[in-house]
Amino acid sequence: MASQILRDARAYEEIMEEKIQREKRPVFHLSPRVGWMNDPNGFSYYNGEYHLFYQYYPYKPVWGLMHWGHAVSKDLLHWEYLPAAIAPDTMQDKDGCFSGSAAALPDGRQLLMYTGVAKEMQPDGSIKEVQTQCLAVGDGKDYEKYKKNPVLTQKDFPEDGDKYNFRDPKLWQEEDGSYRCVVGNCTVDGDGRILLFQSKDGFSWEFCLVLAENKGRFGQMWECPDFFSLDKKQVLITSPQYMIPKGLEYHNGNGTLCLIGTFDKETNCFTEEYNQAIDYGIDFYAPQTLLAPDGRRIMIGWMQNWDTCNLHREEQQPWFGQMSLPRELSIKGGRLIQQPIRELETMRTEQIIYNDVSVQGVVQLDGVKGRKIDMELNIRPCNKEEIFKKFAVRFAQNDICHTAVSFRPHESIVKVDRKFSGSRRAIIHQRRCLVNTEDGKLKLRIILDRFSAEVFINDGEQVMTITFYTDQSADGISFYADGKAVIDVVKYNLKEE
Ligand code: FRU
User: Fold this and answer.
1) What is the DSSP string of 332-367?
2) Distance (Å, rounded) from C-alpha 118 to C-alpha 115?
3) What is the CATH number of the domain that holds 413?
4) CA separation, residue 261 to residues 198, 202, 225, 273 (Å)
5) Closest CA to 166 of 224, 92, 230
6) Which residue in 64, 99, 102, 321 could disulfide with 168, CB within 3.0 to 4.6 Å?
7) Domain count, the chain
8) What is the pLDDT, as a whole number, of residue 1?
9) Cβ neighbours around 461 below 10 Å, total
10) Residue 160: left if φ>0, alpha if ψ -120 to 50, beta else—which one?
11) Is 223 in the pocket of ligand 1 (CB under 6 A)?
12) For ligand 1, is residue 115 a contact (CB within 6 Å)?
């Protein structure tokens, strides 16, 4: 029987969802049923459908007492809301059900593992939030909290770990049927690390070891880990808090980190080889992956930056927060490659093709406009000896507004810029990243939904994601070159139904 707190949330979201017009939401990026959304949780394939839960505060479009929202989809693009899955209604999680994950149990039920937060008064009168790992079991819609919660506490990891920063379990099932999970943590002096735990049945857990340590390199506390094998390598992703930029990497404060290396299953030893940011735009955090039935490793993130949540705040705004487009992952040359899920191609309509268009100054192309589009651009100079200084594509454009992606071949830099997107806030609007380019060539795939752009560079070597809230009537697209560039354009509208 659902608690009163959960029943209230379910009743509220059902009524409020009706009041939000479809045109006021993104088309194929999940937004909260009502109120606030952050991290993806429990991203998984279960009983023939993809499940996506999320950090959820239904009552206001701001972060609050965390519940788990819930949606299901057959294709990761069209989502159907289910009732909120869990609410902060037990002793261990009375101050929030924080991030976590999902896996199937042998008896067919679905197991959710999440962080329970409970405030604790300190001897000096201050209040701190103790974080423990908890379970809930259900049928894909209704869940019951496990009676023996919490299943992991500070007693389960070495004493140098911080019990106030122990969160975001990501669990998975091994081939032998046993379970494992990684949990974000930091040392008592604030240095991020990831802990590995194991369990025979998914209910009783034990500590294995400290899987990875920051040692002062990437921010502080490490949130939202995930750990999986991919293309004969092992990948650890995490979202460190308070990062310091290094060159053109790690500019997002609370940003993303991907460590690629090898894993020895006998000794549980993870050896790091490469590190990189996951997304080079502004709005991407706390990604989580699933293994699809066809073997694809698919990642989704919260399409938002914690520090820029007030880019667009309206008093009466019914929802805030979006998920990214799910991305297919692979590894090439020690780099994480991300491609939009191929299911997106089924939403393509009204193809428009232009080949060998010469761009010098500003160029507009008939039929190339729109705010829900999938557009591929091949950019090159007219000849190798005459490489243009800068190329740019502007979109969500009208007389006042536009958002731009620009490319400077001599510096190997791509930049996204939303400063003219209609924002009235003095917050970060630009981000640059270093790309591979030879002789002034570059490939871009730009995916626009109502409130976002995801820019896939050179077949997914880099992705730059930004949100923006330009009026939907601003649907112009134009191209610009300082010097002479030549482009091929393939553009599709993305269907709404
Ligand atoms: C990351 C995070 C998680 C936590 C959740 C709370 O964005 O801070 O570490 O579980 O959000 O909503």
Assistant:
1) ETTEEEEEE-GGGGGGEEEEEEEEEEEEEEEE--TT
2) 10
3) 2.60.120.560
4) 21, 27, 15, 5
5) 224
6) 99
7) 2
8) 79
9) 17
10) alpha
11) yes
12) yes
Q: Is the C-beta atom of 39 inside 6 A of ligand 1?
A: yes
Catalytic amino acids?
39
Ligand 1 center–CA 99 separation, angstroms: 6
**Residue 220: what residue type?**
Q
The predicted-structure confidence for 258-281, as pLDDT tens digits, reads as follows 999 999 999 999 999 999 999 999
- Counting as low any pLDDT under 70, the low residues of the chain are 315
Q: Indicate if ligand 1 lies below 6 Å from the C-beta of 93.
A: no
DSSP-derived secondary structure letter, 205: E
Ligand 1 atom nearest to CA at 285: 7
pLDDT score, position 38: 98
Q: Look at residue 105 and tell me if it is in a domain.
A: yes
C-alpha to C-alpha distances, 235 to 257, 306, 466, nearest whole angstrom:
10, 24, 25
204 lies in some domain: no
Query: Is the CB of 66 inside a 6 Å radius of any atom of ligand 1?
Result: yes
Within 8 A by CB and 6+ apart from 396, the residues are 371, 402, 403, 421, 448, 453, 468, 470, 474, 475, 476
DSSP state of 422: S
In the chain, DSSP finds a helix count (H) and a strand count (E) of 1, 31
286 lines ligand 1 (CB under 6 A): yes
Distance CA 493, CA 121 (A): 55
For residue 295, being part of any structural domain is answered with: no
Ligand 1 centroid distance, CA of 430 (Å): 25
Give the CATH number, domain containing residue 81.
Answer: 2.115.10.20
Q: Which whole-number Å values give the CA distances from 183 to 161, 217, 222, 316, 317, in the listed order?
A: 12, 19, 9, 37, 34
What is the residue with the minimal CA distance to atom 9 of ligand 1? 223
pLDDT at 14 (0 to 100) = 97
By most ligand atoms within 8 Å of CB, the mutation choice from 53, 55, 239 for ligand 1 is 55
What b/e sequence results for 16-28 when a residue is b if at least 16 CB atoms lie within 10 Å of its CB, and e otherwise?
beeebeeeebbbb
Residue 184 CA, closest ligand 1 atom number: 9
Q: Which domain range does residue 450 map to?
A: 351-494
Of 151, 172, 193, the position where a domain reaches its end is 151
Return d(Cα 113, Cα 490) in angstroms, integer: 43
Choose the final residue of a domain: 95, 126, 151: 151
Phi, psi of 306 (to 5 degrees): -55, -35
> In this structure, is residue 305 part of a structural domain?
no
Distance 98 CA to ligand 1 centre (A): 6
Residue whose token pair is 């590995």: 196
* Ligand 1 atom showing the smallest separation from residue 254 Cα: 7
